[in-house]
Backbone:
């Protein structure tokens, strides 16, 4: 479905996801159920992948193209599976959103640290329901608990680099619905 693709920062920011579910977003999504405010796009079944990406050699602590303003003082993370990076991203959102922002390529996705932090202040809790590494990315199913009491069940397809520093460089909203 070409017109309903929600990508980039809109697929990662809770205030954008909430607008899509509420029908306030300026995107063309297929409404599945008017009573629940559900929005959905097509999803293919997960492909089981057990292979790991090749491990990059150690060396530089920062890439020359690294323009992300939220870099921390600690050392560079070792190359890990894309699934593990996505799990770490969702874990950090609750405890240290600035560090979570370091795991996304904000400059590529079109978001700033301020916008990212501002959007996540609307969230009281995140539940990671499932994370599956596939050939086309990492499919994450999460439940976002908003401060106003609304719960969103969200499926996102995330693309992670296979180089150090690893970053989430693309995000696509697969589905979002009020839970």
Residues:
């Amino acid at each position: 479905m070409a017109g309903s693709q929600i990508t980039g920062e809109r697929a990662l920011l809770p205030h954008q996801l909430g607008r899509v579910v509420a029908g306030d977003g300026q995107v063309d999504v297929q409404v599945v159920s008017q009573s629940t405010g559900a929005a959905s796009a097509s999803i293919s079944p997960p492909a089981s992948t057990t292979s790991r990406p090749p491990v990059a050699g150690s060396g530089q602590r920062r890439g020359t193209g690294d323009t992300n303003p939220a870099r921390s003082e600690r050392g560079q993370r070792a190359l890990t599976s894309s699934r593990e990076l996505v799990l770490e991203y969702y874990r950090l959102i609750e405890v240290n959103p600035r560090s979570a922002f370091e795991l996304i390529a904000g400059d590529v996705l079109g978001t700033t640290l301020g916008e990212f932090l501002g959007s996540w202040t609307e969230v009281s809790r995140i539940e990671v329901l499932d994370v599956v590494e596939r050939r086309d990315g990492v499919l994450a199913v999460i439940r976002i608990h908003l401060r106003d009491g609304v719960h969103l069940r969200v499926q996102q397809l995330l693309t992670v680099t296979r180089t150090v520093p690893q970053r989430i460089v693309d995000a696509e909203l697969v589905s979002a619905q009020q839970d």
Summary: The radius of gyration is 16 Å. The domain at 2-40+77-178 is CATH 3.10.450 (Nuclear Transport Factor 2; Chain: A,).
